Amino acid sequence: MKSQLVQTIRHYNNKGWSPATSTNYSFRDAQGIWVTRSGIDKSEIIEDDFILVSDVCEPIGEYSNLIPSAETEIHCMLYKIFPEARVILHSHNKFPVLCSTENDLFIEFEGLEIQKGFRSINSHNQNVKVPILDNSQEMSFFIEQLSLRRNELKFFCFIIRQHGTYAWGETLLEAKRHLETLDFLCECWWEKNK
Ligand SMILES: [Zn+2]
Fold first, then answer.
1. Ligand 1 centroid, distance to 90 Cα (angstroms)
2. End-to-end CA distance of the chain
3. How far is the CA of 132 from the centre of ligand 1 (A)?
């Protein structure tokens, strides 16, 4: 999993989705949750840049002196409320960032074939409402919001206002599908509405 995820992260970096050491990524296996270290240049990320953390988000064992990403608690919370999730991806693609300045609690999409990239959607005619959370430097804010808005996370993704997107899945392929679907929908929304 580590090598595949490293390839994905470098690919997203090439697309301009993780400027200036931003974004973070994780996967979960029998050992626990593996999350990217804080402050890594994603163009140079390697397999050793993943840190093992416990369910309560503390680095474990040989990793206990290392600092995981500042947003690690978001990952831990998502694994808690989506026990089937195995991979979580985060993007700072500029289109969702821009779209979040023009939408309030949700962004809505309808009529686009790419929507079928979401597991729960099988027609372009279905309505898709993706939640937007306000940004915060307090992880407790996100923990509370994700818990309160759990039922709105039907498409396995959300946007943080003027910040970026999170998406997850039961496999790396599914997490990628969800992240790339949301980011492409946002690109279309922005170009159509602006
Ligand atoms: Zn971020």
1. 7
2. 39
3. 14
Fold of 2-193: L-fuculose-1-phosphate Aldolase (3.40.225)
CB atoms within 5 A of ion ligand 1 belong to: 164
d(CA 123, ligand 1 centre) in Å: 31
85-110 pLDDT tens trace: 999 999 999 999 999 999 999 999 99
* Cβ–Cβ < 8 Å for 188, 112: yes
Q: Among 32, 34, 11, 14, which residue's Cα sits nearest to residue 24?
A: 34
- Record the tokens describing residue 78, joined without a space: 């998502």
**Residue whose pair of structure tokens reads 């200036």 in the numeric block:** 20
* Contact predicate 45/36, CB 8 Å: yes
Please give the distance of CA 134 from its chain centroid, rounded to a whole number. Answer: 15
